[in-house]
């Protein structure tokens, strides 16, 4: 039987505010357990939450960047469940009236561009962390994360393959990081994804029963978990078995998903509007202000790079994958005026060095100015492309300027015609046999003469000049 895959993703992103969503505890990661907790986030009786305005602004940024409509009035609701990592016994979230709805993202996968709908974006608080002791029959709770602001981005079941799911996530992640509202760290859980997946026979209208996958901490694992789950569901259907709606956990080592719990229905949460918080009213002026403050987004930047700099879409994709990298590249281009050559050096040597050292572009020892200067030195013939390879490695290792390195190493290319002609004349004179054979038709010997010149000049002669002069002088 031919099946179609249906995927809908729910993404939680931690917002980069200094303080929590309803109290002024710090959101800093890695502090000693329970040191960032107060009566409000501990859920003591009688306390009142106060909404952090920054959270609304950050959420609005994401909503606008993903083409959502912002609701002029949105309401916080209590989602009731009892678990020790949320001492209040409920999570403050949004339900019937979320901050924003009806957005979309354009996603390219498998050579096809498709529009993936975004159902809603709402604000909520994160829960704490439970730590289970393997050696003792004990569990501990760290409430530092309780009340850290999140946005949940609920996607429509529009995704049709695991590859497309991973691409959609990359685009979302990229936007959040560009907006500087989330650090995007998947391993620390600042960007988490639950993946809902079902299959149906091709041509069938109704969706099949879905399962929800959790615990994938990289784009690759989201894709792997979905691939596994699609196969598992197909196997069940083909063998006449039923798929049960449940939450399953991805096990990285095992490369498989395992059942965790049967999925709650919305009515199990007994949502109701939180009486402690007033509705959030967002007027048009506020929306306009946030919209005006949005930076250029990655997709727009990619298109601009292709148009303005005439570089291939592939290059533009790599160079805009990170905001700081795009800025670095643009700085180099501004200074040297050679977009394609700059793209090659940044994507080639610079990124290679950084990747080897697991460094970000922000930590790059090669200043944009230095790279631009180096490109200029090649263009004017002071150094050859081959010498530049050596120079850039040194620039990366020492942070020195290209001119400094060239002087230090005596790397200047020989471009003086008179000087080079003398060297060539001496070589021709010293090799009468080869000269006669060359003139007699053994054209291959041209390479021999080039080699001799390069040897005599320790590789510093300008290759083009060597070629031109040799041709002329060998013929004379
Ligand atoms: P819940 O409240 O249980 O999280 P929702 O109806 O809000 O459920 O849907 C959650 C996610 O599941 C959404 O991202 C949606 O796109 C996706 N989804 C819903 N139905 C299906 C389905 N049959 N197959 C795959 N994904 C689905
Ligand atoms: Mg859900
Ligand atoms: Zn607090």
Description:
- The structure is a single chain.
- This protein is of the alpha+beta class and about 475 residues long.
- It has 3 domains: about 5-285, no CATH class; about 295-410, no CATH class; about 415-475, Arc Repressor Mutant, subunit A.
- About 40% of the residues lie in helices and about 20% in strands.
- The protein is built from 16 helices and 16 strands.
- The protein has a 9-stranded mixed β-sheet.
- A hairpin with a 2-residue loop joins strand 6 and strand 7.
- The protein is elongated.
- The model has no long low-confidence stretch (mean pLDDT about 95).
- Bound molecules: adenosine-5'-diphosphate (ADP), magnesium ion and zinc ion.
- Adenosine-5'-diphosphate binds next to strand 1, strand 10 and strand 11.
Which structural traits does this protein have?
Arc Repressor Mutant, subunit A; binds zinc ion; alpha+beta; binds adenosine-5'-diphosphate; three-stranded antiparallel β-sheet; binds magnesium ion; 16 strands; 476 residues; single chain; 3 domains; 41% helix; 21% strand
């Amino acid at each position: 039987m031919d099946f179609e895959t249906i995927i809908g993703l729910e993404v939680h992103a931690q917002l980069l505010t200094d303080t929590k969503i309803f109290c002024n505890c710090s959101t800093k990661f890695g502090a000693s357990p329970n040191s960032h907790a107060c009566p409000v986030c501990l859920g003591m009786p009688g306390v009142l939450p106060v909404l952090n305005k920054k959270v609304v602004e950050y959420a609005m940024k994401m909503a606008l960047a993903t083409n959502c409509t912002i609701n002029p009035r949105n309401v916080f609701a209590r989602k009731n469940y009892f678990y020790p990592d949320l001492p209040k016994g409920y999570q403050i979230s949004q339900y019937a009236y979320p901050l924003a709805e009806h957005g979309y993202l354009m996603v390219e996968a498998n050579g096809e561009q498709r529009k993936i709908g975004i159902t809603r974006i709402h604000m909520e608080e994160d829960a704490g962390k439970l730590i289970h002791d393997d050696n003792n029959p004990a569990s501990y709770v760290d409430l530092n994360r309780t009340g850290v602001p999140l946005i949940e981005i609920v996607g429509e079941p529009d995704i049709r393959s695991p590859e497309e799911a991973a691409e959609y996530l990359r685009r979302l992640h990229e936007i959040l990081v560009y907006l500087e509202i989330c650090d995007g760290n998947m391993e620390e859980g600042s960007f988490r994804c639950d993946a809902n997946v079902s299959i149906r026979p091709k041509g069938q209208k109704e969706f099949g029963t879905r399962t929800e996958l959790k615990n994938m901490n990289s784009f690759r694992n989201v894709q792997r978990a979905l691939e596994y789950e699609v196969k598992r569901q197909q196997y069940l259907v083909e063998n006449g078995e039923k798929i049960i709606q449940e939450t399953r956990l991805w096990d990285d080592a095992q490369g498989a998903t395992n059942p965790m719990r049967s999925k709650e229905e919305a009515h199990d949460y007994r949502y109701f509007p939180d009486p402690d918080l007033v509705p959030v009213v967002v007027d048009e002026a506020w929306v306009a202000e946030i919209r005006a403050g949005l930076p250029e987004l990655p997709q727009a930047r990619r298109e601009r790079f292709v148009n303005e700099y005439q570089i291939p879409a592939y290059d533009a994709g790599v160079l805009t994958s990170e905001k700081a990298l795009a800025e670095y590249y643009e700085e180099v281009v501004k200074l040297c005026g050679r977009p394609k050559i700059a793209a090659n050096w940044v994507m080639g040597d610079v990124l290679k060095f950084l990747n080897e050292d697991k460094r970000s572009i922000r930590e790059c020892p090669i200043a944009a100015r230095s790279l631009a200067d180096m490109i200029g030195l090649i263009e004017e013939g002071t150094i050859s492309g081959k010498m530049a390879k050596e120079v850039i490695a040194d620039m990366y290792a020492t942070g020195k300027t290209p001119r400094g390195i060239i002087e230090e190493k005596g790397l200047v290319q020989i471009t003086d015609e008179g000087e080079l002609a003398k060297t060539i004349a001496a070589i021709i004179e010293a090799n009468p046999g080869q000269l006669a054979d060359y003139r007699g038709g053994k054209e291959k010997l041209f390479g021999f003469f080039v080699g001799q010149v390069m040897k005599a000049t320790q590789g510093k002669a300008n290759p083009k000049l060597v070629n031109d002069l040799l041709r002329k002088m060998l013929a004379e």
